[in-house]
Amino acid sequence: MERALTVDGSVGRPRVVARRRLLDEAGVLGGLALVLVLFGALVGPQFFRAANLELVARQTVIVCVAALGMTMVIVSGGIDLSVGSVVAMSTVVTAVALRTQGPAAAAAAAIVAGAMCGLVNGLLVTQLRVVPFIVTLGTMLLVRGAAKGLADERRIEAPVTWLNSLLRTARDGSGLWLPTGIWITVALAVLVGLTLRYTRFGRHLFAIGSSERTARLCGVRIGRTKIAVYTIAGMLAALAGILEFSKLSVGDPTVSNGLELDVIAAVIIGGGSLSGGKGSVVGTLAGAAIMAVIQIGCSQLGLPNWVQQIVTGSIIVGAVALDRLRS
Amino acid sequence: MRGIRKAFGATIALDGIDLVVGAGEVCALVGQNGAGKSTLMAVLSGALQADAGEMRLDGQRFAPRDPLAARDSGVAMIYQEPLLAPHLTVMENVVLGVEPLRGPLGIVDRERMRRTAESALAELGHADIAPDAIASELAPAAQQLVEIARARATGCRILVLDEPTSSLAYADVRVLFDLIRRLKQQGIAIVYISHFIEEVKEISDRFVVLRDGRNAGNGVTAEARSEDIVALMVGRSMDALYPRKSRTPGGVVLQLDRVMPGDAMLELRRGEVVGIAGLLGAGRTRLLRTIFGLEPVKSGRIRVAAHSGSAEPRDRWRQGLGMVSEDRAGEGLARSLSVADNLTLSRLEPLGPPGFVLPSRQRVAASKWIERLAIRCADARQPVAELSGGSQQKVAVGRLLHHDVDVLILDEPTRGIDVASKAQIYELIEELVRAQKAVLLVSSYFPELLGVCDRVAVMSRGRLGPARRVDEWNEHSLLMEASGARAS
Q1: pLDDT class of B311 with cuts at 50, 70, 90
Q2: What is the pLDDT of residue B235?
Q3: What is the mean pLDDT of residues A273-300?
Q4: Where residue A284 falls among pLDDT bands split at 50, 70, 90?
Q5: Which of residues 274-303 of B touch A (CB under 8 A)?
Q6: Digit-coded pLDDT (tens) for A169-197
Q7: CA angle, corner A74, sides to A248 and A82, nearest 5?
Q8: What three-state secondary structure class fits A301?
Q9: Looking at beta carbons, which residues of chain A come within 8 Å of B348?
Q10: How would you classify the pairing of strands B214-220 and B206-211?
Q11: Which of A5, A14, A210 sits opposite B335 (nearest CB)?
Q12: Do A203 and B376 touch (CB under 8 A)?
């Protein structure tokens, strides 16, 4: 075996690989730069003021946190339509728990509730062998109904605690400059990014998404991995719900209707593939930011909501078309 | 068909084939796997275009551009696996594509549809199949009949049956043969492709043998002996591709005791290669998948070294087994993942602290195998889908080396790859065996088995025969055994 045969014909080609990798993420980041420049030119220099950029960030954290979980699910070849409902459920659980518990316990309760929803998704997908689209379409309604039942179809008032200030700008010289919620999002993004890239769990997610049969042949525990990924996605959706609660300061079982579509759109714009095996945290965050910039830019230009929707829709279709052309 | 030629890149699949079939005649087309039978029929049915040569149908030049054109000219194909729309009814399937229409809006005329289906089925002597039955609820044999009825309903004059009996039980084969005789009397020309010499002897009037893309011979079936036909199919001397040296097998590492499916009794020792010969669809892949835990064991016992009983693939890897799948694109490799990911997927543990995988270490581990196996790729991060077939296969085999398994289960490891890569894989097997590894090799290419293996067992119609020393076999006897035509 030592007489290693030729390894020719490959000189100079590694650069091609590296360049394409860069293109993948550069595509989304380039898109983000493009919309920033576009709206910067249209709105004027005040668009780039720190306060305005912070507004963009605040606007997008809820989608971002939920999209981190969705990125992992989509990488594994699945989908989770129940995130919007889990966010609503999480605001309700937080508000209900705050009546008797402290803020930390309330947040923990919401995260446990989200984990349970995700666990149910994972168990149904692996045990019933029903496609995730159908399973989570069902749990989307199920969880929404449960949230409404728990809240008795009303908004739940809750005492004011530090949970209400997660997205409030700290300009009191505390040195953190940005709201805590944004820092939490950044920390989670780093964590999920590292998980996808540097852990066995992360590599298994890519393998399952790329080819489930190959993963099975190679001894990957497919059931366990899938249950874990849906559970983690549920927990992240619950965290998004806590941020939502912070914005609303009440528990509202009807909030975030249709959020799952924004979340999925962020992942897809960010280069994720619904057939699995592709997706990245940087891409997803950029995808979510693109949508937030369009939203805020349009409203600052005084453009009506329908224009904004048409632009966002075109970007989703454009992103997928670009991806198709490249591969 | 005259002087038909077809090349795929550098591979010449058909090199000037002639084939003549008369109306009301059954012509058997035989040859080993890869002899060019399927390619020839793909040309006839319009799925492929020949590079040279011409076809004539009733004296008219015939050059179908696509399968639809061929069907309109009266050429119908029946494949191994039934090709029906599973959710539609029998009658909808029979008239699929030629639905009888009514009125200016082109509404489907269900009454005429029913009558067409009923008369086509009755003509085949199978009025017992209900036109309203759902296709997927019929037995495989009945589905095949519906396909033939469809061929009749579209007015076929040439019917090609490609391995039609491989998914049928014995009684159903009788029914099919009666039907073929009936179609013959109706003046239809039939091309019957089969590996099974006994079937060919029974049903055909004439036979044409293909070998390596050429005509190897033909004759009147009634005047030829089974042995003569097999000799024409084999007809080649062994290549000098195989580096085998003398070996001394060690202890038993894999033992099969009446394992179903396969009814397999087999012992595999360290330092030896055992081959399983057989034809496509004989059940070899199923047996390997059962051993590796990808399919359930129905009965019997599998022992791997000290472990006994069935297990998941994950456990098999732990016990020192590794498998290369015959389905490289669908199962063997995760095509969108990198070479490094594919090489290391089964064993990521040594590539970082517990639970972690460091990409740099993964690349170093992969680079070692890329170099030793001469895998042609830009670097370890290149997606495996961009590699040539030979390099892809080396990645699939390399995974077993990265895992450092003791027993290698290789299912058609050299199918569809270039000769240089083949030679490297043979050499690799030789080195592994010298390092006291054991190899279980399934191949449809008999010279390869004879060149590489120490012992060979033949699987035929779902049953594994006894493993005999390789010098007790030759291509001829393997093919006789695999075709179910035991030499008397």
Answers
A1: confident
A2: 65
A3: 91
A4: very high
A5: 292, 294
A6: 766 555 457 788 999 999 999 999 999 99
A7: 40
A8: coil
A9: 200, 203
A10: antiparallel
A11: A210
A12: no
Element (H, E) at B192: strand B189-193
The CA R_g of chain A, rounded to the nearest whole Å, is 21
CA distance B285 to chain A (A): 14
| Chain A residues whose beta carbon lies within 8 Å of the beta carbon of residue B357 | 198-200, 202-203
Q: What φ, ψ does residue A277 adopt, rounded to 5°?
A: 80, -5
List CB contacts (< 8 A) between A213 and chain B. Answer: 327, 330-331
Span B399-404, average pLDDT:
95
What residues of B are in contact with residue A17 (Cβ under 8 Å)?
378-379, 381-382
Rounded to the nearest angstrom, the minimum Cα separation between B475 and chain A is 30
Q: Given an 8 Å threshold on Cβ–Cβ distance, is B334 in contact with A9?
A: no
pLDDT digits (tens, 9 = 90+) for A196-223: 999 999 999 999 999 999 999 999 999 9
The domains found in chain B, sorted by start residue, are 2-234 (3.40.50.300), 247-320+405-488 (3.40.50.300), 333-397 (no CATH)
Scan residues 109-148 of B and list those with Cβ closer than 8 Å to A: none
- Tokens 């079982």, located at residue: A253
Alpha-carbon gap: A18 to the closest alpha carbon of chain B (Å): 9
| Residue B349 DSSP class | G
Nearest to B331 among A1, A17, A214 (CB): A214
For residue A320, how many other CB atoms are within 10 A of its CB?
15
Which two three-digit tokens encode residue B134? 């759902």
DSSP helix/strand/coil, B354: coil
**Look-up of token digits 């087999």:** B266
Contacts of A279 in chain B (CB under 8 A): none
| Helix/strand/coil percentages in chain B, nearest 5 | 35, 25, 40
Task: Determine which of B356, B424, B429 to mutate to test the interface with A (most A C-beta atoms within 10 Å).
Answer: B356
Structure tokens at A247: 């914005």
Most B CBs within 10 Å, among A10, A198, A214, A225, to test the B interface: A214
Topology given in CATH for the domain delimited by A46-326: ABC transporter involved in vitamin B12 uptake, BtuC (1.10.3470)
For residue B82, what are the CA distances in angstroms to B34, B138, B194?
A: 22, 11, 16
Please state, rounded to an integer, the average pLDDT across all residues of chain A. 88
Q: What is the predicted pLDDT for the residue at B210?
A: 87
pLDDT band of residue B488 (cuts 50, 70, 90) is very low
Contact assessment for residue A94 and residue A162, using Cβ atoms and an 8 Å cutoff:
no
Per-residue pLDDT tens for B41-69? 888 888 888 888 888 888 888 888 888 88
Gyration radius of chain B's alpha carbons:
25
pLDDT of B46: 85
- What DSSP line would sit under A175-213, residue for residue? S--S-HHHHHHHHHHHHHHHHHHHBHHHHHHHHHHH-HH
Q: CA separation (Å) from B255 to A154, A240, B248, B304, B439?
A: 67, 55, 18, 7, 13
Q: Do B330 and A7 touch (CB under 8 A)?
A: no
Q: Determine which of A2, A218, A275, A326 to mutate to test the interface with B (most B C-beta atoms within 10 Å).
A: A218
Contact between residue A198 and residue B352 where contact means Cβ atoms under 8 Å apart? yes
Pick B317 or B390 by higher pLDDT. B317
CB contact under 8 A, B376 and A278: no
In Å, how far is B319's CA from the nearest CA of chain A?
A: 12
ipTM of the complex: 0.82
pLDDT value of position B41: 86
Tell me if A47 sits within 8 A of A172, measured CB to CB: no
